[in-house]
Design a protein that fits this description.
Helix content: 55-70%
Number of strands: 0
Structural class: mainly alpha
Shape: elongated
Distance between the termini: 71 Å
Largest sheet: none
Length: 91
Amino acid sequence: MTKNEELKQELQILFKESVSDFIAELKQIGLIRINSDSPAQKTEQILYSYDKFCAVIADKEKNIRFLQMSGIQNRSKSITCEPVSFCLLPL
């Protein structure tokens, strides 16, 4: 083997080890999650949560209807100040 081929093999080994260590750290801190559920199990989970999904949609539609009827609520004038000059603090 030439030095170039040896260097290539060493770099490949180093790269594989580095990537493996990096992935292990991501799994450890919870940024990568291994989901070994089968497609049938995933479908079953979705179907079980369907009622919750429908309830959330109904709640959002109710909020939208309320906003369409009454509009967006105004902020309290006592908490926010209107004139910009009064809101700025001197430096």
